Automatic annotation (TrEMBL):
Pfam families: DUF503. PANTHER family: DUF503 DOMAIN-CONTAINING PROTEIN, HYPOTHETICAL CYTOSOLIC PROTEIN. This is DUF503 domain-containing protein. The lineage of its organism: Bacteria, Bacillati, Bacillota, Bacilli, Bacillales.
Length: 92
């Protein structure tokens, strides 16, 4: 089973692309290390305070995929400098 999540977020305190990328890099590293998921910035690379992050997981059962994605989303929500605005979850 393959499950993906497309997460749009706002980074209100970012005043430059460098600050934005440092926040995104920390999130990507933590997600990859803790949950063994693939993570990438999908859209809004040239905007300071907006991003779209893609997360993908592969597992043998739907339940494990869903748990992993929900844990990853909870981790994103735990960062105070980023706010999740829209999330689309899709089975592939």
């Amino acid at each position: 089973m393959i499950l993906s999540a497309e997460v749009e977020c706002m980074i209100y305190d970012a005043q430059s692309l460098k600050e934005k990328r440092s926040v995104i890099k920390r999130i990507q590293t933590r997600l990859s290390n803790q949950y063994n998921v693939a993570v990438s910035e999908l859209d809004f690379q040239d905007l300071w305070q907006r991003t779209c992050i893609g997360i993908v997981t592969v597992a043998s059962s739907k339940v494990i995929c869903e748990q992993t994605i929900q844990q990853a989303l909870a981790l994103i929500d735990s960062f105070p400098e980023i706010e999740r605005t829209n999330t689309v979850i899709e089975w592939l």
